[in-house]
Amino acid sequence: MKTLRPIIIFLCLPLVNSCVVQFVPDINEDKTLLVVEGKITDQPRTYIIKLSKSAPLGPNNYSKPLKGCKVSISDDMGQIVNLKETKDGTYITDSTKFRGVPGRQYTLYITGETALGGLHYESSPVEMKPVPPIDSIYYEKEVYSTWPELVEGCQIYLDTRDPANNCKFFRWEFSETWEFHLPFAVPHRICWITDNSDQIFIKNTSILNEARVSKYLINTITDPIDRLSVKYSILVNQYSLNEDEYNYWESLQNMSGQVGGLYDIIPFTIPSNVFCVEKPDEKVLGYFSVSAMSSKRLFIKDNFAGYSNMYNRCLDSTTSRPDTLHGINTDCWILIDNSAQVPPRLSYYTFEYGCADCRARGTNIKPYFWNDSK
User: Fold this and answer.
1) Measured distance CA(204)–CA(113) in Å, rounded
2) Cα–Cα distance between 258 and 264 in angstroms, integer?
3) 44 CB burial (10 A radius; 0-12, 13-18, 19+)
4) pLDDT in tens, 26-45
5) For labelling, which of 48, 74, 83, 363 has a CA lying 20 to 30 Å from the CA of 340?
6) How many CB atoms are closer than 10 A to CB 280?
7) CB of 248 within 8 A of CB of 287?
8) What's the mean pLDDT in 89-107?
9) Sequence spans of domains, the chain
10) pTM flag (> 0.85)
């Protein structure tokens, strides 16, 4: 039988391949669903609520911005703010007239005679929990490779605590910015790149005697490329959560681990805190988030072993003799090497725009928070 088993499987393969058909699960959802994305904090800024309609689950699943709605937010003190639609499906507050206050409860209201068929949607009242400041953000060097040479990166951690024990559930986001230089003294040689986190970082301290988080890993840079070549900065935003919202993010985190990425998720099974007043059983996707926020920034300017400059390739694709570059008459960028202190100054040629102008990857406008002394 052990000899026959592989043969049987092999003979069955053509039958399996010949019967492949597209499968769409039957979940009794033939309607579009309201998708709500929005967050308010206690910071003086414009808050955004995005509304869309998802298509029925199927081969062409997509979401479409939902325009023409009336959106408002009220608190438990009777104050109401109406949001303005700036573009299809995007509704914003006036930063001069509305700002969240820790300790108050907020409710989102959505109506639309045409867009929603006269139905009314609202969120459960959500209390804005106070959030403590971040105690510290720091990094530790890590060796990630010793062959063929030593390569160092770093791990970035944070510590925080709430002595009052008001905030027991935390969430974090970060934005990282780094400076990089091209190997040639060209006009646009120094640039900056900013990237935002796309993972879920949460922590539950409710089972502890004190709301304390120690050495929480917020980011890992295993392959420096050019992140750590000159100077690097990370801004971490810390949010307070109530238990219901923590459970929402935990469910989203668990699902993202199963399907491979946060933005690959179809959060169909994750409950929302928004519901339809006339049809309470109707499913709504997304969440109305209410959180206080605190922020802290870290700069890193250090030497890391084994740094591999991604622009070393520019040295191989650049020449002072344009006749040696194939196709020079069709496409070429000129680099002027200003590093020469005495004549003659040479002109260099390359096919790669990114070797001649750092704006191919980033911006040459220095960020307002960049501190050259750190």
Assistant:
1) 41
2) 10
3) exposed
4) 444 457 889 999 999 999 99
5) 363
6) 7
7) yes
8) 96
9) 33-128+245-291, 134-242, 312-360
10) no
